[in-house]
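Researcher: Please translate sequence to structure tokens.
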Amino acid sequence: MSQQQQHSYIISGGGTGGHVFPAISIANALREIDPDCDILFVGATGKLEMEKVPEAGYPIVGLPVVGLQRRLTVRNLSFPAKLFMSLQKAKRILNDFNPDVVVGVGGYASGPMLRKAAAKGIPTLIQEQNSYAGLTNKLLARSASTICVAYKGMETYFSKDKIVFTGNPVRQDLLDVNKFRDEALAHFELVPDKKTLLIIGGSLGAGTINKSIAAGLAQFREQNIQVVWQCGKLYYEKYKQIVGPEIGNNIHLYPFIKEMKLAYAAADVIVSRAGAGTISELAIVGKPVVLVPSPNVAEDHQTRNAMSLVRNGAALIITNSEAEEKLVRETIDLMGDQNKILSFGENIKKLAMPDAAKNIATEIIKLVADKKYGA
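Model: Translation complete:
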């Protein structure tokens, strides 16, 4: 692509790590293809992206938009006013920044930005991570130029001629985590000849997983299993008290793990929720996983995500309602079954799409060319 003209892109969305980190991966891939481009992130004020995006070296602007609660609550009273303010601010951002393409990665902020971009005739691209399309993306898809998906069969939700199968972006430092194993063991102060279990419930934590793991701490000790446990910022103080003297001994408890490549490198088995971004990372990493899908998501899409692995012999699934009874026991059984560990690891690796961020960046740049030549 000619570098005579500087191109500019807005990437909007976020709310959780599952949206934020793929968005950053897309930005990095854009920079590799189009080094002189100008990239602006637009997120939701007070959300994770407002911290993580600047850390990655990109500017970000926040919108006051909030999510609409699915139950009756006073929090919904502020929704219309904040949406109106967000739409007005989105319009100002577009006028000031004048992007060639606006990209939506899901999350609160993507709605106002893509809606206003489409109204101005700016090409838009949606990245749908899940096997089930959310309401916002279904509405935005009507005016979107391109829709990048990670699962087959998305014609159920979107116009077939707009769909491009790209996979979900992952952090590029996860492509060969095993080479970091020695560094990982030292970083987390782990014993090299002990099996290591990694617990990740998402950036905010997962209450049921935390409760289930806490109840099984004695069993991990009996089986000589060490645990690297991201419990989430909301839960850290509570579980710090519960774990007590085990912290730093057999149990390594963290509110949030920034060095995920090292966490994955140290792990023999991983327990996780089943968000689409997380599953894409787990496939790249190629380690055996026990998935506990969150029940608090639209149309139970995490269960659908998890079953895509289970059907391929690539993971074990424990329902949220069964977790307190079964999670620790079945995880320990898996850690003692070397044949199943190898099988799960090999099968999940087959599902990996390591070039997803590059694939999406290529589609974004195609929209610039289409706009330029009137395609």
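Researcher: Any highlights?
Model: The radius of gyration is 21 Å.
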